[in-house]
Amino acid sequence: MHVYGSGLGFRPAYLDFATCAIYLSVDRNGRPTPFHTPEALPEELVTRGAITGRVTGMKSTLIAGFERNGFFYTRTAAAHASAEWAG
């Protein structure tokens, strides 16, 4: 289930479970994206290719999921919540 378009307020995000910080998925201009992209994550969370400057790796404590009202949901938890709340 794709929860971003569910109208329930889920936004693609990353959680750093080492620090409990949530990072919304945004483009290089800071605009929210409808999909997970690590390109605008803080530099301390990613590694970039020397030639391309594109993200080639992420900190091992990052997990992709969704943010809603300040809370982080894994993909599975967001899908379950969406199914329950939409029904």
Any chance you could write out the topology, listing elements then pairs?
Blueprint: E1 11-16, E2 21-24, E3 46-48, E4 55-58, E5 62-68, E6 71-74, H1 75-86
Antiparallel strand pairs: 1-2, 1-5, 3-4, 5-6
- What amount of the residues lies in strands? 25-35%
The H/E string reads: EEEEEEH
Low-confidence stretches: none
Give, in spatial order, the strands making up the sheet with the most strands. Answer: 2-1-5-6
- Domain module count: 1
Task: Explain what this protein looks like in three dimensions.
This protein is of the alpha+beta class and 87 residues long. It has one domain (4-86). The chain is 14% helix and 32% strand. The strands form two sheets. Strands 2-1-5-6 form a four-stranded antiparallel β-sheet. The chain has a two-stranded antiparallel sheet with strand order 3-4. A hairpin with a 6-residue loop joins strand 3 (46-48) and strand 4. The longest helix has 12 residues, at 75-86. The chain is elongated and about 50 Å long. The model has no long low-confidence stretch (mean pLDDT 90).
